[in-house]
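dumping this here so i dont lose it
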């Protein structure tokens, strides 16, 4: 099931953040399947303020997964971890684990219903990287942890930046013009007369 956003891993165009209302969470959920993936999807919050971000997330997830009663995070990327966050109609208890929990993951618990792991896409992530991360984390056959996906996204970003730098050098040296057949200088035709050579023995 997908809520609010689902983008392909090869999204070329940037996602315009204006298509999302300020209250709707940027969220991509993996479809339920027979083989559980390591991640159940991804969440792209707008800030690192759990008190401000959790209410809109639980508003979407409560009807899908049952009432979310507890959330845990790794405090590495969260400056403040509140003990409780009031959400629509109830309170979510928030805990943290430093060594036991992936720093890029949010664990959600629904009493009597189950637990889910979401990759947390950093708020400052570019739309293209976020789209790739959200699609990868929502793959029902995914076998990567949240930290592995973040490392792969960083590697892809580095490769993309290197490609852009090479292309900029190519452009500055006239590379694109040379590839365009209409812009190529025409080579003048040379006509030469060859001496007559009789055929035969």
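and the seq i came up w/
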């Amino acid at each position: 099931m997908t809520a609010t956003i689902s983008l392909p891993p090869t999204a070329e165009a940037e996602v315009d953040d204006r298509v999302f209302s300020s209250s709707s969470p940027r969220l991509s959920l993996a479809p339920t399947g027979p083989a559980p993936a390591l991640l159940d999807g991804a969440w792209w919050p707008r800030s690192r303020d759990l008190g401000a971000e959790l209410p809109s997330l639980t508003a979407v997830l409560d009807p899908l997964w049952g009432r979310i009663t507890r959330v845990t995070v790794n405090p590495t990327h969260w400056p403040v971890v509140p003990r409780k966050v009031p959400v629509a109609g109830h309170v979510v208890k928030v805990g943290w684990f430093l060594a036991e929990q992936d720093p890029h993951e949010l664990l959600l618990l629904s009493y009597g219903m189950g637990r889910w792991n979401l990759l947390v896409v950093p708020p400052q992530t570019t739309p293209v990287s976020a789209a790739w991360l959200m699609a990868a984390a929502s793959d029902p056959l995914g076998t990567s942890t949240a930290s592995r996906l973040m490392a792969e996204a960083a590697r892809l970003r580095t490769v993309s930046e290197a490609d852009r730098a090479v292309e900029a050098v190519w452009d500055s040296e006239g590379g694109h013009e040379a590839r365009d057949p209409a812009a190529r200088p025409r080579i003048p035709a040379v006509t030469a007369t060859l001496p007559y050579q009789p055929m035969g023995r």
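The beta strands are 26-29, 41-44, 68-73, 84-87, 90-96, 105-110, 114-120.
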